[in-house]
Write a structure and sequence with these properties.
Distance between the termini: 36 Å
Number of strands: 29
Largest sheet: 7 strands, mixed
Oligomer: single chain
Shape: globular
Helix content: 10-25%
Number of helices: 17
Radius of gyration: 26 Å
Length: about 700
């Protein structure tokens, strides 16, 4: 099968180039000779063992030696879930192996659990552009899973947002592999600060809900390695994830749970993963191919990895040594993540226990603020300067508030879900606040008020994709009427991702507030009235029309019913817009602040393994605020990359007048591209451009480096 029928990319040739002296150009264009810190040629990426792996593997091997075949096979499949969890593997009382309870989902403790925090969705977390905040979320989320007796968390979801229509967009992070990797590793670290095994999912190329259980994704190895794999690699190598969940779909002809190229050759042999590989629910399709692929567990049920596996051992088609390896992976992950040493309560005994806390609610509110993106702020409409009156408009502001998505990502909040209307009323104090639900009367209400806040929302869920980027239920008409009546209108978007904005020119301000969790209303009010500023930057591109973006034909999305062709290759997200020349509504990385910043003085210096860029940033405004300094690298044409790529970033908070110098690492690996399976990662010789700025489309500082 030709896995890249119509690739728009020109792939570079392979080759090894000896280390040489290069030149680094300053931001003003002058060049200074430096010793090359990142020679051209192959980049060696050895398998990596995470701390505790060897000891955990030794304990697992000793336990395997004491187990019967039936006991080993019992570890390789689980039953359906109960109240509060999605599936379970029974304990082994004879050998004191604890039961496994697997709990959804990425945005909070799911499966109908009570007493838990309904966090902002994962898109909000990604929009913080802050790995530290991501780790804090993982820590708090892991604590709640542990308190509910769930020692395996089915999170995080880190599939790349290939198309904005994906129904699980709210569960995942971003369109960019580098940002994805930084967030994934941090969330995993936070979760596993507790005796809870993180499960990074869905490996791999699970980027649509339409036909997800049967579609064959036809994608080049280069696109897998550069776009769809980096988050998983970071999660297992840097984050130390104990488990990986395979996806429903096929990849290049093989079901993901049977895909030896992906699981054994890449995940295990190339990256050194020693943990548990489970199927998505119902995603196991065979006994022999699954066992030979390097996968371990069927969920739920035992159709293939129960009696049929035992029969295969008896028949000699699967060796008992293979079963030992599979069970060893499960036990190694359990030992490594502390499941033997720190036993959790039986979930049945803590069904009614409240595990949310004031600290968690404060963190939820903070994430919502830090991850909300100020897309537009004409005439500095925000923050409000004590308005005489406020008109709140839209069903989504109250009864129709959308604070989370559906499917396995749904979470039931403990206590009050603060709607936008409730949050605004509470914060407004003695400022009059009116509320109008529908189009009828909306324009009059907006016209009569000093400022108007119109809240719009969509609803997405696992199991289906959006069919349009337009807001549903006539909300565009509602917004158009309101902004026409009052130019001092703030549009708040509680959506799973990008939407079209035919009314954008008339809106005074626009905030992407995503699915903000149970503290959504309080977070929104704090931003409107200036108690806090929206600190987010877009983790995805917002197209200007349905016609923009990759995957424009049916075979490219959602597929022809059998296969879907990733013909865009590496040109996903902002890479597509940069290479195609299409101008989006808002670019990747965009986000405004309530203050202003100045970037200057970009420099690039040799480092031990590559280079280190540094840039000065100064808050030139009148209030404390945050900026995300973003570094993009443009490779020489011979590398065959479609555009510049994000390679480093740092979120900085500064007081008025305060300055700081930000240092951004560019290791040799940042310059490497995946050429072929034979040559692997290679630094192509040539001139590389280093650009620094505030978004993928706003990069005022630039310098160059010659490699090879």
């Amino acid at each position: 099968m030709n896995v890249n029928r119509r690739s728009v990319l020109k792939l570079a040739g392979a080759g090894t180039v000896a280390a040489s002296v290069g030149t680094v150009a300053s931001a003003t264009g002058a060049a200074a000779a430096v010793r090359s810190g990142a020679a051209a040629g192959p980049v060696r990426t050895a398998a990596t063992s995470v701390p505790g792996s060897a000891e955990a593997a030794a304990k697992a091997a000793a336990l395997i030696a004491r187990m019967t075949l039936d006991e080993k096979i019992a570890l390789l499949h689980g039953g359906s879930g109960g109240t509060g969890y999605a599936g379970a593997v029974p304990a082994n009382a004879r050998l004191d192996i604890p039961a496994l309870y697997l709990g959804d989902g990425p945005g909070g403790v799911g499966n109908g659990s009570k007493g838990v925090t309904q966090w902002p969705d994962c898109k909000t977390l990604a929009a913080t552009w802050d790995p530290g905040t991501a780790r804090s979320y993982g820590d708090a989320y892991g604590a709640e899973q542990a308190a509910k007796g769930h020692n395996i968390a089915l999170a995080p979801c880190i599939n790349i947002l290939r198309v904005p229509y994906w129904g699980r967009s709210f569960e995942t992070f971003t369109e960019d592999p580098y940002l994805n990797a930084e967030l994934a590793a941090s969330v995993v670290e936070g979760i596993q600060a507790h005796p809870v095994m993180a499960t990074v999912k869905h490996f791999a190329a699970n980027n649509q809900e339409v036909l997800r259980g049967s579609i064959d994704v036809v994608v080049s190895q280069r696109a897998l390695q550069e776009i769809y794999y980096p988050g998983f690699r970071a999660a297992v190598q840097r984050g130390g994830a104990g488990a990986v969940m395979t996806s429903y779909n096929k990849v290049n002809g093989a079901w993901s749970h049977e895909n030896r190229t992906a699981v054994q050759d890449t995940l295990r042999d190339a990256w050194g993963f020693d943990g548990l590989v489970m199927s998505d629910w119902g995603g196991t399709h065979s006994t022999l191919l699954t066992a030979r692929a390097g996968s371990d567990m069927e969920m739920p049920g035992s159709t293939y990895l129960g009696t049929k596996l035992k029969d295969a051992v008896a028949a000699g088609t699967v060796s008992e040594a293979t079963v030992d390896t599979m069970a060893g992976h499960v036990l190694t992950a359990m030992y490594r993540t502390g499941l033997f040493d720190h036993r959790l309560p039986d979930p049945a005994t803590v069904l009614s226990k409240v595990v949310s806390s004031d600290a968690h609610l404060q963190l939820a509110r903070s994430i919502s603020v830090q991850g909300s993106v100020l897309l537009k702020n004409a005439q500095q409409l925000l923050p409000f300067a004590r308005p005489a009156s406020v008109a709140v408009i839209g069903d989504a502001a109250d009864a129709g508030a959308r604070t989370h998505g559906g499917g396995s990502g749904a979470v039931s909040a403990n206590g009050t879900v603060v709607t936008p209307l409730a949050g605004i009323k509470a914060r407004a104090g003695d400022i009059p606040v009116t509320y109008t639900k529908d189009l009828a009367g909306a324009a009059d209400a907006a016209r009569a008020a000093d400022v108007a806040v119109v809240v719009a929302a969509d609803y997405t869920s696992e199991g289906s994709d959006r069919t349009t980027l337009a807001l549903p239920n006539g909300q565009d008409e509602l917004i158009a009427a309101v902004v026409a009546a009052n130019p001092c209108t703030v549009v708040v978007l509680n959506t799973s991702g990008s939407v079209l904005m035919p009314w954008i020119d008339g809106a005074g301000a626009v905030i992407a507030n995503w699915y903000g969790g149970q503290e959504q209303g309080n977070a929104l009010a704090a931003m409107l009235f200036g108690d806090a500023e929206p600190g987010g930057r877009l983790p995805e591109t917002f197209p200007a029309s349905e016609e923009q973006g990759p995957a424009k034909t049916t075979v490219q999305y959602p597929g022809d019913g059998v296969q879907v062709y990733y013909d865009e290759g590496l040109a996903v997200g902002y890479r597509w817009y940069e290479s195609s020349g299409e101008k989006p509504l808002f670019p990747f990385g965009h986000g405004l602040s309530y203050t202003t910043f100045q970037l200057s003085g970009l420099s690039l210096e040799r480092a031990r393994d590559g280079y280190r860029a540094s840039v000065a940033i100064r808050n030139t405004g009148h209030r404390t605020g945050s900026e995300v300094v973003q570094l993009y690298l443009t490779a020489p044409d011979a590398a065959g990359e479609p555009s510049r790529q994000l390679k480093a970033f740092e979120k900085v908070t500064l007081k008025p007048g305060e300055s700081r110098r930000v240092s951004l690492a560019l290791p040799r690996e940042a310059f490497a591209v995946w050429q072929t399976s034979k040559t692997g990662w290679t630094v192509v010789p040539g001139t590389y451009t280093v650009s620094v700025g505030r978004s993928s489309a706003d990069l005022p500082l630039e310098t160059k480096v010659r490699i090879g």
